[in-house]
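[job 4417] fold queue: 2 targets
>>> target A
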Amino acid sequence: MISIVIPVYNENESLLELYSSIDNIFKTIGEKYEIIFVNDGSTDCSQEIIDKIAENNDSVHSIVFRRNFGKSAALNAGFENVSCDIVFTMDADLQDDPSEIPKFIEEIEKGADLVTGWKKNRLDPLEKTIPSKIFNAITSKMSGLKLNDYNCGFKCYRKELLKEIDIYGEMHRFTPFLAHKKGFNVKEISINHRKRKFGRSKFGFERYARGFFDLLTVVFITNYLTRPLHLFGAIGAVFLGSGVLVFLYLFLGRWIFGQSIGTSPLFALSIFSMGIGAQIFVVGLLAELVVHNKERDRKKNYSILSKDIENR
């Protein structure tokens, strides 16, 4: 069986058509499925439509939020309630084409742990496609995982992968990066992308700004969460080293020859730089102490593929 998690926020016009398309494709491929609609605080009649669909199909379920908590929260709620070993995520706006589902399953059967879609021929306006390309290029460079489309919501996961990653804020778009850092096999495939048929996008340009800050967060928690001094120490060393070099220049080039350096702007800059560097280094040490004390309460920062030792 296959689980499909679909976040819903004011998509009442598209839900019946989306459900019908999913149902038809699974009848064609002969697979059983369950759909979990996560109503993320919709203010239209989306829930009434979901309830009507569920009345006629026991495999359709819903989770209703008290208010709009965002896509990451909706996906997390869905992931916690899936019952199948293969889990899809799709958007509810009909731009994801359910007929592409067999392609994802094929890659999973070949050994992929996460398969993410790539809207190669994206049918969105330029004000969305151009910032998206820039965002994907920056994310690929900073993460070390080159993908053409981090923003695609059409993905397929093995359930065991979902147990090892947490998503919040705008982290949903970085699940391939988080999975890659855990050692899972991530695959990207090109998919058919369709124009929005009803309503308008719920995301504006500001999501790219939020996404950039979340990217910095993801890079930090995956690379430096258990060794923060490696980051703060490096930054502190740059400031401290720069200050020392400027001070040596003033000392060796002026002071020993009898010139005053106390009123030089470079002297103030060197003292300021050394002070900032020392403070950043101390912050790194304090962060190390926090990590040391919290390590036992934290989730494991590694992922086990298999083991041949029994629990004792």
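>>> target B
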Amino acid sequence: MRAWGTFALPAGAILLAACSTEQVVVLPAADGHIGGVVVESGGQKAVLDKPYASAEAGSGSLRQETADATKVGKDYASALAARPIPPKSYMLYFENDSDELVPESRGVFGEIFAEIAQRKAAEIVITGHTDRVGTPEYNDKLSLDRANAVAQRFRDDFEKHGIKSDAITTAGRGERDLLVQTADQVPEPRNRRVEITVR
């Protein structure tokens, strides 16, 4: 059997092997997102792009159906339990022309540390952003300054929360990935942010 597509869990497909057959099942993510996969066996193809769409291959044949969610959960409980925790993202917002967090964003660190504690080897990606006030060059620097300021906050709590320094990556995107599209030189608080992804 050959299969192409998204095999990342949970919004993708899982290859489940049983005896002389192999089964591919598309599992929905917690938010309902569905991945997809094309399965080929014995010259036959199946496109699986709906929740619990399934293809079973064995002895050169391919059978396509919709798997029962309860049965999948029971029959493949150990494989499903081994799935990694999906990444989780948090947004922190900044004062204008500054790497200082707005007061509402300072309290989010407790949630982030709680999420990190659930993972055996957490990786943290911190990406800074700006609005369109200032030059692109200035905003590139400011966005990286924001990411680094947040990373420093993590570094100050390494021992307390068991975070290793090599688990944190920072990047600055400047004004390239606006949440709210604006004209040049228009201030927009929702674009002055850092996105923290814990995975």
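[job 4417] complete. Note on B: The longest strand covers residues 12-18.
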